[in-house]
Amino acid sequence: MHCPFCAYADTRVVDSRLADDGGSVRRRRECPECGQRFTTFERAELALPMVVKTDGRRES
What we know:
- The protein is mainly beta.
- Helix content is about 0%, strand content about 40%.
- It is built from no helices and five strands.
């Protein structure tokens, strides 16, 4: 994940726990370049893949 402060390409996860709703994860991250800390909330996106048939029809 990119740092929102200095745009460095890599960050370190300091703390990780379930958020209050139970459906997402709250992570505290730290940038090794500038030392700033920030919080992210991550949620799984559950979507079935779309299948495109050879005749162009789409199925989910």
